[in-house]
């Protein structure tokens, strides 16, 4: 009798929650496909819970940071005050939470497997109008490779991640006030 290769399969919501909860500090490259089909690239710095930094490569002059429950968008081209949003009103807040629990009632609205990756679409169960985030994970090893954020207006932004290197990150990377002073 021939031995068949092990079948790859859909990852459980519990396994994906565990992966996200163990992803405490990482750095990696990203490619972003914006709602208007333009493409941006840069470096992502992630430190859970609650902090992230997207440094965009030229010609972009943007920097997006989240810390202390706030998302701040710096656009140096505009030379104006940065835009600020509550993190908990964005789908990104779901994966930056202190304890990610994708098994929570009404959080996951879709969970599937396409033969190579497990996808999960999640939203804030109390506030689905804030939008959703579709997360795409590879199996072996389990890695977050992409997300698609659908905002409250229905616009979609896709972020494709390079390999995330787990490493300690300096506090200054997440210091929003320091960035505010530097951009003045």
H/E topology pattern = HEEEEEEHEEEEEEH
Radius of gyration: 17 Å
Biggest sheet character: 12 strands, antiparallel
User: What would you call the structural class?
Assistant: mainly beta
Through-space gap between termini: 71 Å
Question: How many E-type strands?
Answer: 12
The geometry reads as globular
Strand content: 35-45%
Structural account:
This protein has 184 residues and is mostly beta strands. It contains three helices and twelve strands. The chain has helices spanning 13-22, 92-96, 176-183; strands at residues 25-33, 39-47, 51-56, 62-67, 70-75, 83-86, 108-113, 117-123, 132-138, 143-150, 156-161, 165-166. Strands 1, 2, 3, 4, 5, 6, 7, 8, 9, 10, 11 and 12 form a twelve-stranded antiparallel beta sheet that branches.
What is the strand and helix layout of this fold?
Blueprint: H1 13-22, E1 25-33, E2 39-47, E3 51-56, E4 62-67, E5 70-75, E6 83-86, H2 92-96, E7 108-113, E8 117-123, E9 132-138, E10 143-150, E11 156-161, E12 165-166, H3 176-183
Antiparallel strand pairs: 1-2, 1-11, 1-12, 2-3, 3-4, 4-5, 5-6, 7-8, 8-9, 9-10, 10-11
């Amino acid at each position: 009798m021939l031995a068949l290769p092990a079948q790859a399969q859909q990852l459980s919501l519990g396994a994906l929650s565990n992966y996200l909860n163990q992803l405490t500090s990482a750095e990696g490259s990203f490619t972003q496909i914006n709602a208007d089909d333009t493409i941006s690239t840069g470096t992502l710095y992630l430190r859970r819970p609650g902090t992230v930094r997207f440094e965009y490569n030229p010609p972009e002059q943007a920097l997006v940071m989240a810390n202390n429950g706030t998302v701040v968008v710096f656009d140096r081209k505009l030379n104006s005050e940065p835009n600020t949003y509550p993190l908990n009103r964005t789908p990104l807040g779901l994966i930056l939470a202190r304890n990610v629990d994708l098994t929570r009632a009404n959080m996951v609205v879709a969970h599937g497997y396409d033969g190579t990756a497990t996808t999960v679409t999640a939203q804030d169960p109390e506030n689905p109008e804030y939008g959703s985030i579709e997360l795409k994970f590879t199996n072996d090893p389990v890695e977050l490779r992409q997300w698609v954020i659908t905002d409250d207006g229905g616009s979609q932004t896709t972020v494709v991640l390079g390999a995330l290197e787990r490493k300690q990150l300096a506090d200054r990377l997440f210091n929003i006030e320091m960035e505010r002073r530097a951009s003045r």
